[in-house]
Amino acid sequence: MRVGVIGSGPAGLMAAEVVASAGHDVTVFEQHRSPGRKLLLAGRSGLNLTHSEPLQRLLERYGPDRPNLESAVRGFDADAVQRWCRGLGEPILVGSSGRIFPESMRATPLLRAWLARLEDLGVELRLRHRWTGWQGPELCFDVDGRRVEFEPDATVVACGGPSWPRVGGDGSWRAAFEAVGVSIAPFVAANCGIEIAWSAPMLERHEGTPIKNVAVSAGAGAAQRGDVVVTAAGLEGGPVYALSRQLRASGSPSVEIDLLPDLKRAAVVERLAKRRKGANQTAWLRTTGLAPAAISLLRDATGNALPNEPQDMAQLIKAAALPVTGLGSLDRAISSGGGICFDQVDDHLMLRSRPGVFVAGEMLDWEAPTGGYLLQACLSTGVAAAHGALAWHRDA
After folding, report:
1. Chain centre to alpha carbon of residue 376
2. How far apart are CA 189 and CA 241, in angstroms?
């Protein structure tokens, strides 16, 4: 079988590995000058491959997308990801939060070993091949203005979502699928920052400053714990990213931040009740353990009209409300939602309208929080699409 894989991100490379390991000819097409560029970007702050929590809990992280992803994730779960990583010569590191990384924490050694394995398996990598769609059974590519065609027996398309288009996919594949009648949900930013109209003093003093160990919530949803960072636009960080779907659905009204989530409100009141005579509000608030950026956040949340009573101040510290004026842009989001609707593919991720064409990774309409769940699903759907292609070939 001759298989074409479009896209050299995690889902595409994993599909290529599975098919080539079964003894078939595989050619990977990549529009950029080098492979795995978005994987390398993800590895700049530590390549979070998956999570060590029990499988049931991991599956719950996919929320409403769990039914569409469960079969793939079960077929190539977190244990399988770890075995695969070790097989590439990269030991595993489990962080204190349960997140799983290569011991080096970087993507470069892993990608280098992965590409070497694919080369040993006979996988051909063709760079600077921008896929433009189909002409009958043939895949069409633009190569520096020249049209190139390739006719495979099966195809795995893994072009990625449109977030960070400078290094990865840009969503241009959408036109090719719409041209053959495939339904695609609109792209949206996921795992993105929130926009907040900070005051000038807040930005002058604290832009780029992290606020450690907070709990962020929106509406009735569960609070998300972690660190946030003050940016010129608003707030970034894991707790904010995890609320992207919820804030998008609600029109981004506001978030509440508990600046001392490890303390009960009564304990905060007790600390505040020990205010020294003559202490100004900043000195008073520092007795609770709040950092300067957190104190400035409280000033912005109240228009610099901080309460003076311990009970009222404790309530503010435990639930500082910040209006959200918008979500971060798609081109800077960590990931994206939207894409090919799951009703357009069968249980093996093959397009119902185009037999022999399989789809994997962020091209499909799903989203997940950070913490290893994004790469886990990309790798899992890559394996699932590859197995689908092998099964389809056997049954053809």
Report:
1. 10
2. 10
pTM, full prediction: 0.92
DSSP letter string, 322-357: EE--EEPPGGG-SEEEEEE-GGGB-TTSBBTTSTTE
Partner residues linked to 157 by β-bridges:
6, 359
How many C-beta atoms lie closer than 10 Å to residue 29's C-beta?
26
Q: At what angle do helices 310-318 and 265-272 cross, to 10 degrees?
A: 130
Over residues 25-44, the pLDDT tens digits come to 999 999 999 999 989 988 77
Taking the CB of residue 15, how many other CB atoms lie within 10 A of it? 34
For residue 169, what pLDDT is reported?
Answer: 78
- The rounded distance, in Å, linking the Cα atoms of 102 and 109 is 9
The DSSP bridge pattern shows strands 146-150 and 335-340 to be unpaired
Span between the terminal Cα atoms of the chain, in Å: 11
Strand order in 50-51's β-sheet? Answer: 50-51, 99-102, 92-94
Tell the residue number behind the tokens 């081109």, with chain if given: 331
In sequence order, the 6+-apart residues with CB closer than 8 A to the CB of 315 are 265
Whole-Å CA distances, 317 to 241, 247, 261, 294: 21, 22, 9, 9
Q: What mean pLDDT, rounded, does the chain reach?
A: 95
Q: How far, in Å, are 26, 65, 154, 222 from residue 126 at the CA level?
A: 11, 33, 17, 45
59 contacts 66 by C-beta, under 8 angstroms = yes
User: What is the percent of the chain where pLDDT is above 70?
Assistant: 100
The yes-or-no verdict on residue 385 having pLDDT over 90 is: yes
Work out whether strand 124-126 and strand 25-29 pair parallel, antiparallel, or are unpaired: parallel
List domains and CATH numbers for the chain.
Answer: 2-189+335-395 (3.50.50.60), 194-327 (no CATH)
The closest of 156, 186, 170 to 359, measured between CA atoms, is: 156
> What value does the CA radius of gyration of the chain take, rounded to a whole number of Å?
24
pLDDT per residue as tens digits for the range 138-182: 999 999 999 999 999 999 999 999 998 877 778 999 999 999 999
149 SS3 class: strand
Instruction: Find, among 326, 56, 367, the residue nearest to 242 by Cα.
Output: 367
Cross-strand bridge partners of residue 326: 195
